[in-house]
Amino acid sequence: MSDVSNEQPRTEPQTTVARPVVGRLVPGEAAGAEPPALTLRELSTGALLEVGAWPNHLEKVTKTLSDLAGTTLPGRPGRFTESPSALVCWIAFGRFIYLGAAAEDTARVDGALEAEDAAVVDLAGARRIVRIEGEAASEVLNKAVAIDFDPAAFPAGALAQSVIHQIPAVILRRSETVFDVLAPSSLADALIDWMTDAALEFGYRVGEPGAVL
Amino acid sequence: MSGYRLPQGGSHLDRSRPLAFRFDGEPMQGFAGDTLASALLASGRVLVGRSFKYHRPRGVMGAGPEEANALVELRDGARQEPNTRATMTELYGGLEAASQNRWPSLSFDMMAVNDLLSPLFSAGFYYKTFMGTGQATWHFCERFIRKAAGLGRATHLADPDRYEKTNAFCDVLVVGAGPAGLMAARAATAAGLRVILADENARAGGRLFEDGVHLDGLAPAEWIDGALREIEAGGGRILPRTSVYGYFDGNVLGAVERVADHKRKPAPFEPRQRHWTIHARHVVLATGAIERPLVFSGNDAPGVMLASAGLAHATRYGVAVGASVVVFANNDGGARTAIQLADLGVSIKAVVDPRREIDPALAAALGARGIRLETGAVVAATRGRKALAGIDIRGFDPISGALGANVMQPGCDALLVSGGWTPSVHLASQAGSAPVFDAALQSFVPGAAREAWTAAGACAGTLDLAGCLAAGLEAGRTAANACGKTAENRDISLPALSGQLAGAELPFPLFDVPATGGAKRFVDFQHDVTADDVDLANREGFRSVEHLKRYTTLGMAADQGKTSNVNAIALMARARGLTAPQVGTTRFRMPWTAVTIGALAGRETGHHFAPVRRTPLHDWHVAKGAEMMTAGLWMRPRAYIGPGETLRDAYIREATAVRQRVGIVDVSTLGKIDVQGPDAGEFLNRLYTGGFAKLPVGKARYGVMLREDGIMFDDGTAWRLAPNRFLVTTTTANAGAVLAHMEHYLEVVWPELRVHVTSVTDRFAGMAVAGPQARKVLQAALGEGDVSTEACPHMGIVRGRIAGAPVMIARLSFSGELAYEVYCDWPAGLAVWETLIEAGKPNGIMPYGMEALGTLRIEKGHITGAEMDGRTTLADVGLGGMASRKKPYVGSTMTQRPAFVDPERPVLVGLVSRDGQAIRAGSHLTLPGGGASLGHVTAVTWSPALGANIALAFLSRGRDRHGEVLEAAFPLKDERVAVTVADPCFYDPDGSRMHV
Question: Which of 1.25.40.80, 3.50.30.80, 2.70.70.10, 2.40.30.110 would CATH assign to domain B901-996?
Fold first, then answer.
């Protein structure tokens, strides 16, 4: 513990670096250059799970996840596919993030996968999702991440795990001009703080909160 | 009379837009398109600065990034920027510039006395003067030297501008938008590649404006604009005002775009500069060449400049650099420049050329314009101190190098000099082998490429325009081939050139003219390094180019030897009787041009320096008056300081509440890891020093992990939630490191274990309820669940609901009191916390912060990072009993190392201040009266429970010393505190308070 040598009653206004008001998206607000070229909004999801398949059960797990999501899984890590009810990210070898439209999907996925097949972790409250939308969206992200966002190199359906301003993030390209960024809940305000500042030169408005699916 | 604006001309100039600016406070006028340098020259300003060391008067010498003399302070207030090249500064209305390195004024500079004292300031001045004089002399002189040193003054005010950093990707990066670069970019674009074309100038075209030709029947400006449109239409990105300053591994290049430096201030939200990290598959280096000065007596007089600069000022900005101009060149370019300038209306008096004869056609053209040609002659000296007044022309024997006896002394106010061309090989050198000497150019060209680049045009030693265009096209095709495009790149053809075509202007190998009189002959203008300094370095043994550079400061700093490097090598070669390639060349390093700190920092300044990590209770803490403190990226409440309270009052109140009633603390920051899989128990059993394989479901256990070397790594608890599932908690600081540690063992050491580890730190909000009333409060808050002793014994885990949210509760204690850790979903954290506070009100529940938490744990002798400092073992902290003897674990084989079982080893003890004085963390423990250190203090506090100042410490043979009196010495503050050594567990040593 640090020394406690502060014996003086505090008289000056408190100067903490807490800044509680920074890093919040207030729908309807706009800032930066005009007219705003970007829209930022926060998205919610019913379920968010991480699934780690054991190597020799990968095929079975992908099949189960496909069935649960109602879509064919992407052919390789670094891609995601979606149906109206679920979005499955293949984030690394044997590792998936399952985003379900319904909260009940957490139990469905957990129940469908045996302990002998995969580890399943509920991360629903552990991530927040920010959508950045507009022609300049990739330019904003490129300020932090060294990813080639050319549509030929990183098309819609591509994802990347990267770091934005020290914040671990999963970036999903939903379309040419729409990116969804998953960040740890404790750092989501900081991500929004970074993103709103980075977006100032293009101008942004804050959209109504939405759903991932 | 000196420089003036020509009545017409100026490809870059918009004469319909006059701009007012000030230099040293004097109002002046230029036009849109001017540089500060061209506007000063057009205004007749000759003297623009004072030199670095000798404070000699200096004028503009160049027209681009090579400028070494005209360095000015731009702007004022917080935007003041020193050492800015006037030749690269675009004029804007209201520009404020000031000369630098002079006092009291530019024309009367007291410090010019340095020039008279120059014998004292030869190369190696500091080494010679202060070596052996002792520290006192240096410290006395230092303040004066520091005051005199440097050029401009940096502001101490915070930079008000925004800077951005970004990444860009391309197939082909073309550096330089001169003729070669434009052709390369056209070819690569036509091949369907993604192209970035970067040029440090505001306008593309390079020296095309000075070549005096038409391309496909178009004037240079039209052809250039057409090429740029074509590149942009093909998807290429043009980056003007962008200096590619560094070439890094993996074909990654650094560039700085001067987004708003040409404006008075950036537009709202516009960055002043943008740093580009460019990832290119192939790079075309079309960085051009810089004209070399010649070394002769007084060659730094204001009014002496590069011939190419004189021509550029006339063609681009419609400026005659003098009313009476002489050209001194060792190549045909001198005569050509004279002819072009004369045709533009500049009064050229003579051309001086050391060669016995020049191209007869050029000689005739000079004669036709009334320009006197002096062949077999050199400019041996200049006259005029603050402005060139005239020159000494002397005969020159090209064989012997001797000067003739006769002296001609014509008057002139500008002398244009050309010693040949020096390819700008800096980027190629950064990403390649050593540059290679080219005898025809008398200079260096790029060596073999070590990254994927192709050099083209003047950068590669091709000096004629047709050759540059062809080389650029070829380089573009080479780049396309390298990117796998071969078929499509046939669309581009070379432009047809018309007009007077210059050949390659190869120099006669003359670098310097023998000294006449006492005047200095400068090699490096920016650092005031003379030919004599190079000779001195040779005589004193600093002969390699690298030693020469460091001994004399030649080619250092922002200049990077652009105009000085080749001349210095030539002089050193002659002094040593070697050829230039035998002397070697500097291997250039970044940056090509100066990079502002702002561009490197980007937006990571102030409160954006690092992200803030918040628990879900963050706003609650702040609203309740908590003083927040950082813990890594996290913010945690230090104490909730009430009105009129000191921090000390607050934490004593909080800690006392925990001991007497009940307190609650936010522990959401603890690292949490989901360890899952059929082998999870086995995995933890191998990582922790204690046994975990048989931990029953529904129980938690305290565990310590060691590093491979047997030193303590981290501690925490593991909760067995299911047979194949654990929740592991770590210290806040080590959460990431423990996860990485686990992943390392799973992926590298024990890949056969079926275990997945996932960070769930942000999954669960955590709060510890501690104190004699903890159970009562918790039970009252629980909607569902039972925390009775029977249902939830010590280290037991139960599930329940608070505020409708599912919670997991483990009975764990860090404070030594009856305590529970309550975990819930992150988003439910605030509701659960507020419900607990509400339920605790009848019992006087009090939130507590890190200070109270620290006090409570010190009273109990519990360890944290201060004790697990990378040097301590389990036995050192008194946890030797946790080292299982029944199984191996990571680090176990190292625990019996001789040093770890040394009886002298410092071990954890408690200290109690004997006279009430506070003990300082970091103090060393000595015998009363002093002596060698026996150990050190890790943590201190005032203990409300004991009513004493206490501390934890590591003390040699500490367990044998309980009861001894020692001193805790803190020499930096000259403090000595008498302490009694005690057991580290000061409070409730039998643990009865938490077992209730």
Answer: 2.40.30.110
